[in-house]
Write a structure and sequence with these properties.
alpha/beta; 4-stranded antiparallel beta sheet; 9 helices; Rossmann fold; globular; 6-stranded mixed beta sheet; binds magnesium ion; binds adenosine-5'-diphosphate; about 20% strand
Length: about 270
């Protein structure tokens, strides 16, 4: 029997049609090449983690997908159709919902008002009772632990706020949801709760793109890990990739102080038989 290491690099091709597909997407801000020639596929019922150092282009990519920025070149397909997202409304209408890092919740308003914020006048508009019922329904689908939908968001924990922001994004019945650093500000228990939530969103058959700095969170929930470095694709990994592989792809060096430290930690935490 050969004792070859298991490949941890994800296969580039998949037979299922992706819900989202980017080919050769580039974005320049004047002289700055924020993204160069990016390819990205996300399937229904798949969590793709987007990782990379500061300035790697993660936020720019999310802003392109949410229609905030338009790519300088390249193509974007959604459910097999080539699309152009002129503004955030176009992205939302297509079925792409974004939870930005700042969550954009109104502290003084209650959970129901936050879930329906800005939708009061839309075709989704409902009366107060219907909005409350719909809010509970969304939160229950996520098995979310919110004490009441009539308390102000200011009194909720960081994890509960993230839950409200995710529930709000599900209101438009999207096919793809983008989460920018959903666990960045959270403690251990709340992080676990939000990761559970992401798994339930995936179980509903949505595609999920999650930006994260935390390799543990990424490995816990992602089906594939896409690394960006200096605005370019720098590898696609499966969640069983080692810290060293991920750190090398993120930093572009196999031997540096970050990878040495993470190796030492991994070696120290691996029990020897
Ligand atoms: N609106 C902008 N104008 C000019 N440069 C920008 C703008 N947004 C991002 N950039 C630049 O693009 C690069 C990628 O940034 P960003 O997408 O924010 O990276 P990340 O989210 O991975 O930290 C950086 O060099 C950043 O300075
Ligand atoms: Mg960013």
């Amino acid at each position: 029997m050969t004792n070859q290491p298991k490949p941890t690099t994800a296969p580039a091709q998949s037979k299922r049609e992706p819900v989202l597909s980017l080919r050769g997407v580039s974005k320049r801000f004047g002289a700055v090449a924020a993204l160069t020639d990016i390819d990205l596929d996300v399937h229904a019922g798949e969590v793709v983690a987007l990782v990379g150092d500061n300035g790697a282009g993660k936020s720019t990519l999310v802003k392109i997908l949410s229609g905030v920025h338009q790519p300088t070149s390249g193509t974007m397909s959604f459910c097999g159709q080539e699309v152009v997202l002129d503004d955030p409304g176009a992205s939302l209408e297509l079925g792409i919902a974004t939870v930005f890092q700042d969550l954009a919740l109104c502290e003084n308003l209650d959970v129901v008002a936050n879930i329906f914020l800005g939708r009061e006048m839309s075709p989704l508009a409902l009366n107060e009772v219907d909005m409350e019922v719909k809010s509970w329904q969304l939160l229950n689908e996520l098995s979310a632990r919110i004490p009441s939908v009539r308390i102000p968001v200011a009194s909720l924990s960081g994890g509960q706020r993230q839950t409200v922001a995710i529930a709000r994004s599900l209101l438009s019945a999207p096919k793809l949801i983008l989460l920018d650093e959903p666990t960045a500000a959270l403690g251990v228990a709340q992080t676990a709760e939000v990761l559970d939530l992401i798994e339930r969103v995936r179980a509903k058959g949505l595609g999920v793109v999650m930006i994260s700095h935390n390799m543990e969170d990424v490995r816990a929930v992602a089906d594939r890990i896409v690394v960006l470095r200096l605005g370019k694709n720098n590898g696609v990994f499966l969640p069983d990739a080692s810290n060293q592989e991920l750190v090398s792809a993120i930093t572009g060096a196999s031997d540096n102080s970050v990878s040495r430290r993470s190796n030492r930690r991994q070696t120290a935490s691996t029990p020897t038989a």
